[in-house]
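May I ask you for just one protein sequence along with its backbone structure tokens in two labelled lines?

_____
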Amino acid sequence: MNSPKQEQLHPTADRPEGHGLGGFVSGALSGAMEKKSNSTLVALRNPAFCRLWLASVLAGTFISAQDVTATWLMHYLGASSFSLSLMAKAASAPLL
């Protein structure tokens, strides 16, 4: 059943470039990654992974900004050093 002329397609060969945000990033990075397929950034070619990675980076950035803002506000309102350290510890506990 297998013909000798069957071609093996690259997993991303049927996806059009420029599809969503993943296409934008993969289009920008594809030139550098064509020569080096074992690059760390080769996973960003997958649009679903690219969106997930970008959402994760943005969420981490905004969570950190919220933690800093809350600590600054407690300091501004006159909280003690002990309560500020407890708040910082509670904010970083999920990361441990």
Summary: Residues 20-95 form one domain. The radius of gyration is 23 Å.
